[in-house]
Design a protein that fits this description.
Blueprint lengths: L12 H59 L2 H10 L17
Length: 100
């Protein structure tokens, strides 16, 4: 049976640095991966909220455009003019040509 001489194995500075970096990577990479995925998920939720707002606003705009077209129709204009006492007189219409 051999006796242990009590020699310690020396770890060099480079090895210590290498072990530290390896330990850091083993811990930091999964944590950063989870953090990045959480940020991405949060950003996707915000994007969906903005898309929903845009869609609602487009629907409102379309509805308002339909109301504008309805109110700007000739029948509606004639009805409003008749209600305030105006009348349509063809003799008062003047045609202006832009041809030079």
């Amino acid at each position: 049976m051999k006796k242990n001489n009590g020699k310690k194995i020396k770890i060099l500075r480079g090895e210590k640095l290498l072990y530290f970096m390896l330990f850091f990577l083993v811990i930091a990479v999964p944590i950063s991966n989870v953090f990045i995925k959480a940020l991405l998920s949060e950003t996707n939720i915000e994007v969906e909220k903005v898309r929903n707002k845009i869609e609602k606003q487009e629907n409102i705009n379309e509805s308002l455009n339909m109301q504008i077209n309805e109110l700007a129709s000739l029948d509606k204009i004639q009805e409003v003019a008749k209600n305030i006492g105006l009348s349509y007189n063809n003799d008062n219409i003047k045609v202006v040509n832009d041809n030079q």
